[in-house]
Amino acid sequence: MHVATASLAAAVSQAGGLGIIAALNFPTPAVLREEIRRCRRLTSKPFGVNITMLPSLVPPDYRGYAQAAIDEGVKVVETAGNSPGSIIAQLKDADVTVLHKCTNIRHAQSAAKLGVDFLSVDGFECAGHVGESDITSLVLLNKARQTLGVPFIASGGFADGWGMAAALCLGACGINMGTRFLCTQEAPVHPKLKHAIVQAWAALSTG
């Protein structure tokens, strides 16, 4: 979905969260630069950029997207998908805080060795990019608490303060929310989809 744009990111940041712009929503680093600037016009609060690194015969210009974020003063970059090793040094040299999403402990440990500042531990409930092991957040977060030496946030199935409290009890330092925000006025999503999400029950998922 083309949802994680400046309008939604700015609204999340204005409300006290950390809004995220998805770099690959934009065809080139230059277009991402313009979206970052648009977000700055909408909020004076911090926001971040996500760079998802996926297998591809012709990979996107990941370093170009990272440089666009750096040049525009973005201080938090969230990476996901494949190993972010190719852009870690570039980001760290620019004093950017790096958060990497992982769906299992092995990948989280590998990312920690690369020098990421935070990890996002994504349980099976996480929409859009489930892991290979189908481990639920309850199990995965508890294992992360026992194993990881890097601060982590929880992703997957969190939509309110009750879920956040549970994640904190399991050792996370925060939560990642996405699907919940699809229903907001700021999300560029068709009203019928928003209605379907609001009416959904526990067995349904955007995954």
Automatic annotation (TrEMBL):
UniProt keywords (A-Z) are: Flavoprotein, FMN, Oxidoreductase
Where does the record place a coiled coil?
Answer: none
| Gene3D superfamilies the UniProt entry points to | Aldolase class I
User: Which CDD domains does the entry link to?
Assistant: NPD_like
- Molecular function terms, GO-annotated: nitronate monooxygenase activity
Query: Pfam families, from UniProt?
Result: NMO
SUPFAM superfamilies in alphabetical order: Inosine monophosphate dehydrogenase (IMPDH)
Name of the protein in its database record:
Nitronate monooxygenase domain-containing protein
